[in-house]
Design brief:
The protein is an all-alpha fold. About 80% of the residues lie in helices and about 0% in strands. The chain has two domains: about 270 residues, no CATH class; about 100 residues. The longest helix has about 45 residues. The chain is globular and about 55 Å long.
Length: about 375
């Protein structure tokens, strides 16, 4: 029964969750905390913080964490696969059309209607999560500083590391508790070091499925940040070093990852299809998402233990507050791009009212936004 529930929720989200990781997190919070009460808001925030400490696609890792918490190891697999597969199939269909016709159908109209609603969904989630996460003046300061740091271009992992150290150090009461925090903080710092692996050189090589898997497994294993970070990473490997893709093809792949529902990292599916057909799409998809399952399987059981440790719990509080600050910074940037005229501002405001007053499921609002955008275009 629980596995069926997990599969249904994440199949639905994988089909309707537009807008990138911040929007995905907001929609998951709506489904598993507010509507179904699978997790407390505090536990949900802990998992959000945990996903920020490991490489890979954050929203996919959050789905895997939730599946594990709800239905054990089988739930871990079912949640992740259910969230990924609908998006991968949609992207594969788009890639087939791209290969056949050589271009993308313009998605601007659909995005015009969806983006303002995504802003409303994320804004509501930020408010709800913020009420739970911001427990003190210190955590409020941490959240504001994290948002400011992200706006200034400081690396996300550095922001999270500083937040964890600051809150743990400010609340440590004994040498013993301070020593207990060392493994936790060392683990956070160590996860940052994985980014250095992204700088390892890739030798030119003819295209092959094994090499394709290696490129995307490396990306999934070391990459922190958004789909735009993925753009820089894949450009360095696939365009400059290996020469498998052209610049326009890579930009089209990133655009498809942004406009389709589900994980933005399904950009890998699109590229794999272009380079190697259906087999290439499958290999690239497995390559980029497989590390997420491994990292969550390793870190998932540790998260509740971190919360039970006084010093680690305080570090996690700081990381949660900083995560919300990062999410707020992304929302502000997206809002500036999405709310461009009276129509989009009205859509965002009406959506926020519908979410707050009538508790309408965000998936229906996003579908309505897509229809409105398509009609207006």
């Amino acid at each position: 029964m629980r596995l069926r529930e997990v599969a249904w929720v994440f199949l639905k989200l994988g089909t309707t969750a537009f807008g990138g990781p911040a929007a995905h997190i907001a929609m998951m919070e709506d489904e598993v905390v507010r509507r179904r009460a699978w997790l407390t808001r505090e536990a949900f925030l802990d998992y959000v913080g945990a996903t920020n400490l490991i490489p890979g696609p954050n929203s996919t890792e959050l789905a895997i964490h939730i599946g594990h918490a709800r239905a054990g190891w089988a739930g871990l697999l079912v949640a992740g696969v259910s969230f990924i597969v609908p998006a991968a199939l949609i992207v594969s269909a788009a890639a087939w059309a791209y290969v056949r016709y050589g271009t993308l159908a313009g998605p601007a109209g659909i995005l015009y209607g969806i983006k303002p609603i995504v802003i409303a969904v994320v804004a509501q989630a930020l408010w709800r999560l913020g009420i739970t996460a911001i427990k003190s003046a210190l955590l409020a300061v941490v959240a504001v500083l994290a948002a400011s740091g992200a706006a200034a271009g400081i690396h996300e992992m550095l922001i999270l590391l500083i937040a964890g150290v600051l809150t743990a150090g400010a609340t440590a009461r004994s040498v013993r508790s301070s020593r207990a925090s060392v493994p936790v903080l060392a683990g956070i710092a160590g996860s940052m070091g994985l980014n250095a692996a992204a700088m390892l050189p890739v030798s030119p090589a003819p295209f092959g499925l094994l090499q394709l898997f290696a490129v995307f497994a490396k990306a999934g294993a070391v990459l922190f940040g958004s789909g735009y970070v993925l753009l820089a990473f894949l450009r360095a490997d696939l365009v400059e070093r290996l020469g498998w893709l052209t610049e326009p093809q890579l930009l089209d792949a990133i655009a498809i990852g942004q406009v389709t529902p589900g994980p933005v990292f399904t950009t890998a599916t699109f590229i794999g299809f272009i380079l190697g057909g259906p087999a290439g799409a499958f290999v690239a998809t497995v390559g980029i998402f497989l590390p997420a399952f491994v990292f969550v399987a390793i870190s998932g059981p540790v998260v509740p233990k971190l919360r039970r440790s006084a010093i680690a719990g305080r570090a996690l509080d700081g990381i949660n507050a900083a995560s919300l600050g990062l999410m707020a910074a992304v929302t502000w940037q997206l809002g500036r791009a999405a709310l461009t005229d009276l129509t989009t501002i009205s859509l965002a405001c009406l959506s926020l009212l519908a979410l707050v007053l009538f508790r309408i499921n965000s998936a229906w609002l996003i579908i309505a936004g897509a229809i409105i955008g398509w009609t207006l275009s």
